[in-house]
Request: fold
Amino acid sequence: MAYIPAVLVAVGVALLSLAESTQMPSVSVNDKLVHGLMYTLLGILWMIPVKRPVWVCLGVTAYGALLELLQHYCTLTRSGEWADLLADFIGAFIGVALVALLRMVNGK
Reply:
């Protein structure tokens, strides 16, 4: 049951990442900030059931890499970017680090 929120958010991220840009609403927020925040949330949610910081960070970043590749090769109006993948990694790292820090503080 602990996986359900992480899986639902991962599916939502995939849907947002792979939707054609003509179907996406125009937002004035920095794209890299959005990537960072989405992957911070994924990092936090995957730390709940997995509890292995290195594996969660690597797994969430690999998921981001997969989505960037799918954007590049499987969509007409989207493209994969290295800067997006870097933002994904930074977000995942922050999410994992926050949960790990909270666990250390709480002695869990």
